[in-house]
From TrEMBL:
Protein name from the UniProt record: histidine kinase
Reactions that this protein is recorded to catalyse: ATP + protein L-histidine = ADP + protein N-phospho-L-histidine
Superkingdom assignment: Bacteria
Pfam assignment, any one: HisKA
Keyword Cytoplasm applies: no
Sorted UniProt keywords: Kinase, Membrane, Phosphoprotein, Transferase, Transmembrane, Transmembrane helix, Two-component regulatory system
EC number: 2.7.13.3
Parts of the chain that traverse the membrane: 26-53, 157-180
CDD domains xref list: HATPase, HisKA
Domain Histidine kinase: residue ranges: 200-419
PANTHER family linked to this entry: SENSOR HISTIDINE KINASE TRCS, SENSOR HISTIDINE KINASE YKOH
Residues annotated as signal peptide: none
Protein localization: Cell membrane
Amino acid sequence: MAKLWKKRSTSGQSMSKRDRADLRRAALRLALQFTALIVVVFIAVGALLYFIVSTSQSESNQRTLIDAGHSLSTDDGSGVLMAIYAGGRLQVSRDMPAGLPDTDAISQVATEGGVVQNQVSNDGHTYTVRTAKDEDGDRVIQVAIDQRENQEELQRLLLALVIAGVVASAAAGVISALMARRSMRPLAEALALQRRFVADASHELRTPLTLLSTRAQLLKRTLHNAPSGDGPATSAAVDEIVQDSRMLSEILEDLLIAADPRETTEQQPLNLVEAGTNAIAALQADAAGRGIALTITSSQATITVAGTAVSIHRLFTALVSNALDHAESAVKVTIAVQAKDAVVTVTDDGPGFGSEISDRAFERFASSREKTSGDEQPRHYGLGLALVADVAARHGGSVSIEPAVPGSGATVSVRFPLA
C-alpha cells in the first residue's frame, strides 16, 4: 500500500496544476469527440433499423392487400375490411368505419379499370385502401387495412431507439472520459517531465552563465584600467566572451519557450541579413580552424521577417554547424527574396544527403550524413536540423532539402514569410 501511495505521489509531483488542467481539457475534448462518433454511429444504425422495419411493414401490408383481393367474402375473419361491388350492388364488411368504403375509387375502377391505392384517415385511424377488379373483371374489390397498430409499433421502436441512444451516449461519454484520461496520462506526464527537465537544466545553467558574464565584465574593466601592449586585442576578446555569455542566457530562455507550446514570445521585425551575418561571424573561427571557407551573400542589404533574434541566431548556427561538419572546403550561405518569402540557403561541398535519409533528416536523433573524414570531429546527436525545422515552424516558415546535384554536396533551404 505504501509503494502504491508513493507511486501515485511521484506521478502527481510530475505534473503541475496547469498540466493537470491541460490534461483534463484534452481528455474532455477526446471524450466529446468519441461520444459524438458513438452518437453518429448509433443514429445511423437506428435510422437503418427503423427503415428496415417500416419497409417490412409496407411490404407485408401490400401482400395482405393483394391476397385479400382474391377473396369473395367480406367477412373472412382476417381483420381486413372489404367491399365488393358487382351487378350494381355493394357488399361491405360488418363494422365498416365511417369514410369507407371509398366509393369514388370504386366508381373509377369500375369505369376505367386499373388499380387505385390510397390512404383514408378517420377518427384517429389511417387505412391503406386498394381497389381493383377481380381476375374475371366482373367485380370491383376494395380492401382496406388499419395502419394504427403498425404506426404504434413504429412509435414504440422510435421511443426505444431514443432511450437507448441517450443511455448509450451517456455511458459512452463517461467511459470515454475515463479511458481518455487514463490513456493520455502517460503522455502528459512525459511532456511534464520534459518541460521540468528543460526548466531545471536552464535554471542550473543560468547561474554559472551569470557568474561567467560577471567575471568577464570585471576582467574587461580591469584590462581597461591597466594599460598593456596587447590590451585592445585582449579587451576585444573579453567583449566577445561577454556577448557569447549573454547570447547563451537568451538561448536558455528560448529553449524554455520552445519546450512549452503554451508559452509564446512576441515577434518583432527582424533584418534576416544582419542576423545571418552576426551568426556567421561567430562561426568564422571554427570554420577557419577546419580549413573551410565560410561565406555569406545576400540579394539586398535588408530583408525583413517577423521573428525573435535569438531563435533566428540558433537557426543560422545549427544550419551552418551542420554544413561545417560535412563540408570538404567550402560552405556558402545565401539570403534572397523569392515572391513573398525570404529564403536562406546553405550549401556545402560535402557528400550530400543519401536518398534513405532525406525523408527523416529533420527528425530528432536522425543521423543526417556520414562524416567526411577523421574521428576528431565531436560526437553529433542528430538535433541540428530538427532544431532548424522547429524554429522555422514557430516562425511560420518551412525547411527542405534541395534535390541533389552530382558533385555539388548538400543544400538546405529555409523559407520565412516576409514581414
